């Protein structure tokens, strides 16, 4: 039996990858604000994990597999140490489970973030107390 077919090698799990995992890219656990746009509606959630090929995020309204979606994710790193960024990504909802949806990215790019997005992305209890700096 070739080494690549041996049970010990075949069943080995790549670090950071669960057995039976189909995705090719590593996902990193991170909790970031996300606004998602569907064809006729939008909602707010938080990322659960993200990688170069897609993301898992919470949803506050029904979504279904196969839907096109655009995500606007508040990025945690500043451009030139002063400009807030959003990762804007579009793709297809691959699966939905218990208030969460997985999307595979088709396109993504960084864009500067508006102060309105940053205020809206705050948890509700902090929205009224946040300074309105531009």
- List the total number of helices: 3
Shape type: globular
Strand content: 35-45%
Strand order of the largest sheet: 2-3-4-7-6-5
Domain module count: 1
> What value does the Rg take, in angstroms?
18 Å
What's a concise summary of this model?
The chain is 11% helix and 41% strand. It contains 3 helices and 7 strands. Strands 2-3-4-7-6-5 form a 6-stranded antiparallel β-barrel.
Keywords:
134 residues; mainly beta; Thrombin, subunit H; six-stranded antiparallel β-barrel; disordered N terminus
Could you walk me through the main structural features you see in this protein, from its secondary elements to its overall organization?
This protein is mostly beta strands and 134 residues long. The chain has one domain: Thrombin, subunit H, CATH 2.40.10.220. Helices cover 11% and strands 41% of the residues. The chain has a six-stranded antiparallel beta barrel with strand order 2-3-4-7-6-5. The N terminus is likely disordered.
Helix and strand topology:
Layout: H1 7-10, E1 28-29, E2 33-37, E3 42-51, E4 54-58, E5 68-74, E6 85-97, E7 100-112, H2 115-121, H3 124-127
Antiparallel strand pairs: 1-3, 2-3, 2-5, 3-4, 4-7, 5-6, 6-7
């Amino acid at each position: 039996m070739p080494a690549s077919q041996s049970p010990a090698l075949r069943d080995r799990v790549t670090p950071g990858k669960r057995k039976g995992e189909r995705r090719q890219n590593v996902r990193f656990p991170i909790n970031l604000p996300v606004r998602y746009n569907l064809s006729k509606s939008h909602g707010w959630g938080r990322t659960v994990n993200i990688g170069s090929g897609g993301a898992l995020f919470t949803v506050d309204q029904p979504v279904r597999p196969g839907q096109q979606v655009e995500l606007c994710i508040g990025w945690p790193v500043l451009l030139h140490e002063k400009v807030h960024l959003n990762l804007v990504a579009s793709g297809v909802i691959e699966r939905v489970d218990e208030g969460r949806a997985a999307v595979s990215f088709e396109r993504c790019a960084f864009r500067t973030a508006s102060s309105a997005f940053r205020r809206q992305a705050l948890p509700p209890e902090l929205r009224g107390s946040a300074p309105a700096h531009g």
